[in-house]
Amino acid sequence: MAPEISLHLAGGGLFDAAGGEFSSDAPPPFWAFVWAGGQALTRYVLDHPELVAGKRVLDVATGSGVAAIAAARAGAASVEALDLDPAAAEAAQRNAEANGVTVRARAADVSEAGPTDVVLAGDVFYTRTVADRMTAALRKSAAAGALILVGDPGRGYFPGRLFVPRAEYTVPVPAALEETESLVTAVWEMRNTIPASANKL
Question: Tell me, what DSSP letter sits at residue 125?
Answer without folding.
Answer: -
